[in-house]
Amino acid sequence: MACASFDTNSSFSESAAEPEVDAGTGQTRRTLLLGALATSACLGCSTQARAGEDPPGSDERPQKGDLLVFSEGDQEGKLITAADLKPGGPPVHAWPKDPNTSVVRSASRLNEILIIKLDPADLDEKTRARAVDGIIAYSAICSHAGCPVTAWVKSDVGDKEVFKCMCHNSEYDPRAGAQVVFGPAPRRLAALPLALADGSLTVAGNFIGKVGGAQPG
């Protein structure tokens, strides 16, 4: 009887111990699985983060030979040709584009450009030298507080239309090198020399003048 009792208890103990081993193994497997899933999720996040990064060169200032593309509107990303510009304005907003890599340099807002076509006879000598067939380009960033220059309106101090920053009402005359004609802006807009290549507008040199708003202090 004692032996029978011993065998019964031993069998019970073994059967009771087995679920504990299974539970531990199951817990370990679950832990490994969760760890693998977490690792995969992190790798996925890293891949997405890398995929969302701006391509090399997209924050560089316009380079000689860059093409110019629309930065807004229905034609965003398309090449700008001389035929796209209405004589006398309004200006179009553009980004420079590397012709070799097709990278649009839109990662910096300081790279946005205003392009306008005016009568060459209305341009002063220095401005005419940077233009091509009356087409001229300037930085689209106000030199006062760095706001975008968005308006083409009649000046508050004359009868000509001018570029205007609507933040603090600074006005610039594109015929005279985008000099300040009204408002608190401390200096003219930076100018960008242009050329034509196969009918498309291209950059002929670096910005002339400082790009962006006045620095505090």
Quickly list its features.
four-stranded antiparallel β-sheet; 217 residues; alpha+beta; 2 helices; 11 strands; disordered N terminus
Number of strands: 11
Radius of gyration from the CA trace? 33 Å
End-to-end separation: 100 Å
Continuous helix count: 2
Compressed to H and E, one letter per element, the order equals: HEEEHEEEEEEEE
Question: How much helix is in the residues?
Answer: 25-40%
Shape: globular
Mean pLDDT: 83
Structural category:
alpha+beta
Low-confidence stretches: 1-21, 31-50
Strand order of the largest sheet: 1-2-3-4-9
Strand content: 15-25%
Q: Outline the biggest β-sheet.
A: 5 strands, antiparallel
Could you walk me through the main structural features you see in this protein, from its secondary elements to its overall organization?
There is one protein chain. This protein is α+β, with helices and mostly antiparallel strands. Helix content is 26%, strand content 21%. The protein is built from 2 helices and 11 strands; from the N terminus they run αβββαββββββββ. It has helices spanning 2-51, 125-130, and strands at 67-70, 92-97, 113-117, 135-139, 151-154, 161-164, 171-173, 179-182, 191-192, 194-197, 200-203. A 5-stranded antiparallel sheet has the order 1-2-3-4-9. Strands 5-6-7-8 form a 4-stranded antiparallel sheet, with no helix packed on it. It has a two-stranded antiparallel sheet with strand order 10-11. A hairpin with a 6-residue loop joins strand 6 and strand 7 (171-173). 29% of the residues are buried.
